[in-house]
Sequence to fold (193 residues):
Amino acid sequence: MDKMTKNRKKIRREITAVGIIFLSFGLILVAVGMRPTFKIVKNTETLLYVTDYPLSENYVYFDTTLKPGDMASGTIKTSNPVNFYIFDSDQYNNWQTIYSYSPNAPSIFTRTHSNNIAFSVQISYEDTYYLVVHNYYSYSGCVIRSMYVERTYFTRIEHFDYSLSIAGLLTVLTGLIIAAIGLSTRVKVENKV
Fold:
């Protein structure tokens, strides 16, 4: 074999090797692109919106079920100062019985003697929670001017990055073409007599 033939074979092997490298890299990209990743999405849901609600009773409550990781937040404006509590179910029962509606009862959140309240509470366990507006000072004609409560929670969503898979497929295709060119290159062999 002469030197020219050896060079051609060497070039052919190198072209094929480059094609195989592209092919391998493309397959890796396809595999990575097919693996799911997870995104955390923040969601907000209105639990309560009340306006001009008369406190004809000593107190009014609104109940809702909340889960660990939930954030309950909102604002309350009243015509007269009130006490506001967020109780879990046991605390609410104890407030009514053991503590006899005392402002010192244990709660998740307490604000006393205020008519402009903002709150934000992180929930650590699932339960029914009671949002209590208590007319402790017995103001006649006390009205909840506005009460807005929302729940913020996070969900985990499966996500696929198809752009990597598409790039991988294009790289695989390029690798196949290059390898095919390398393998199909004809080497001309001259017979010397």
